[in-house]
Every structure is written in C-alpha cells, then in structure tokens.
Design brief:
Length: 407
Amino acid sequence: MGIVILFGALIIALIIGSIVLIFIRRYRKTGIWMLCTLVSLIILTAVYVYFPRHFKRNYLQKEHEWSGLAFRRYADSLNFYIGAIPAGISLSDPRFSENFNSVTPENALKMGPLLKDFKVGEYDFSQADMLVNQALEKNLRVRGHTLVWGKQADMFKSPDLRYWLENFPEGERSSILQKAIENHIITVLDHFRGRIHVWDVVNEPMSMINKGKLENNVFLKYLGEEYIPGAFQIAHSADPDLKLFLNENLISYTDKTAGAFLKLVKKLKDNNIPIAGVGIQAHIGSRRDTSVADLRNFLEKITSMGLEVEITEMDARLRLFSGADDPYEAQGKYYARILRTCLDIPLCTGLTFWGFSDNRSWEDSMSVFFPRPNEPYLFDRDMNPKPAYYHVYKTLKLEHEARKGSL
Ligand code: XIL
C-alpha cells in the first residue's frame, strides 16, 4: 500500500511539475513532452491492468470425469464446515446442498438489509427468514454474518449511522448509538434464536489503511474501543448458547495489523469476554504470495489461545495465478493447500468461499480494485466445476479416507 501511495504521489508531482513547466516559456516544449509522456504511460498502464485477459479452460476436457462428484458427505464425516455464500444459486439446487454443509448469507443478515427501508430500529426479516429457513430445510449450518460492522455503515450507506446520528445533539450521540446497537443485537439474536448458532459479532475492526490501528468507524468514534468487547457481552447475554466470532480481513499475516489483531483477540480472551472463535476472511485480492505458511502460523497462534478459527470468506482471484502454465489448475492447488492447512489444525473448523460460481463475484462488481478476470470460485460462469472444485473434492476425500483408515 505504502509503495502504491508513494508512486501515485510521484506521478502527481511529475504532472504538476510538467504543467508548471508549460507556463514557463523557456521550458514549454519540455513541459508538453513530459505531460504527453506521463498521460500516455497512465493510459497504457490502465489498459494493461483493466483489459480483461482470458485463460484457456483446459479443465473443460475433464468435465465428464468430474460430473456426479460431491464432497459434502466427506466434510460431514470430518465434522468440518465447508461453505459458500448463495450468490447466484438457490440453496435447493443440489449443486449447493450436495457439496456444502454450511452457508453464509452474503448480505441478508447485515444491519442494512434487515431494516425496514433502512430505518434504524425497524425490522423486516422476511427476506432473511426465507433464506435461513431454506438453508435449514437442506440441513445447512448458517453462519450469522454480521452484527456490528463499521464499514457497512461507512461505505455501503445502509444505513449510514454517522449521518443518522447527526439528527441528534452531539452530547447525546454516544448513548443513542449504544442503545441502537444493543437493540440491534438483541432483536436479531432473539429473532434467529435456535436457528443460527454462530455469529460474526464484530466484523473488520482493523483499519486497512492505518497499519496496526483500529478502523476509525462510527462505533470507535462514539463508543471507543469498548464497542468490541461490549458487543460480545450483549450478544452473550442475549443468548449464552451462541458461538461468538470476531471476523477480520487481513492482507498479510505477519504485518503490524496482523500483530495488533492478535493482541486484540488476546485481550478479549484475557478479559474473559465470551469470544469462541476468530474468522479469517482470506480475500486474497492483491497478493498471491499471502503465504500459506504464514497463514498456518497465524491460525495456530489463534487456536493456541484456545479459540476456534474458521476461514470465512475465501477467494483467490484467478489473475493472481496468471504466471502459471494453467492458472485454473494453480488456483485449485492453492485452495487445496489452504484447505489442507485448516484440516491439519484441530480447532480450524471450517472454510467458506465468498461465492459459488464465477457468474457472480463481489470482486467483479468492484473491478476498479479487482481487475478481471477474478473468477475466484469453484464453479465457472457456465456452472462447470473448475479445478478449484476438484481440488477441494480430492482434499476432503483423502482426509476422510485417511481418518477412517487410522481408526
Ligand atoms: C460484501 C458483499 O459480497 C457485497 O455484495 C456487498 O456489497 C459488500 O459486502 N468482507 C465482508 C463481507 O465481511 O461482508 C463483504 O461482502 C466482503 C468483504
């Protein structure tokens, strides 16, 4: 991130410099040349980055070998949660329910979509109920995602709690927000009591920009750091039987933010805050080299605190493997290594993909940040199983056989 900012600043400085030169008669020509060169470079880079590339889909030849495979039964026998979000697929589609035993609603359980017309304190559970009930009919575990998410309020404007709070005098905002969040947690947990047993209580508390710091969201601003343990305590008192998770998106597992996140988790644990587990999102958006060894180390640090861990939002963009002979195969192998890592750690209890087929990916809808092809999931845009599918299948099957054999 630092290098990108530095590079951006350098380009801006050069552009400003060349414009200044244009206004100095003696250097006008140099200035024009500089500006033209810079603009051409920017255009070429943008074309290079954003022009969608296509990779050969060699796997289509294997399709007949893979048809009829299903991996849910292996995950069930391993007591391991293998999940996906139901994006662009119905939960009653056997391709979902025969492969996955866990589902995370992508947006349906977030604060905005649960509110009636985004009005704080007024709820309409009809959409979420439909999805949750359909999941339960298929015997799927539902991950509750998520109760307190600063970015939901800040970035996705649904609702923008900062804006909403401006309706109240400054001095009253903290207690109003505290009451609103208490009411939200209690209402939602009450509503899904007995149907959803695991919740991401707080999502993404760490800042993505300010390394090692908490995200400066509306909750931190008005409630201070206490909003994090506070949310866990409210959730626990609303339903003591729930498994409560802290969910985070890390870009590296060894940097300052990763360290600060571990400290936060340890503090919660040391203070007897009712946290049962940690969710690691694993959106591998920009760094293919988010090393699997680092991830393993990190997961083990969490489980050594006696906490469960799940990989909650896995996706590794195809483009990150563009150097490989067969990027689809390389992507599949990468997923297999991550899954293997989780299976090796006794308290690593699940892996969820943040999508189902490449037809619909949240990264495509943010392609300014994630230039295509993203194609991060197990099924391709035509619903064909990809090498990613096959590698997940094979890893679960082998583990199932190994554990059966060792009994
Ligand atoms: C994303 C959804 O996939 C999008 O549809 C929505 O517009 C924004 O949120 N980390 C999270 C998820 O915890 O909730 C986010 O989901 C992706 C990043």
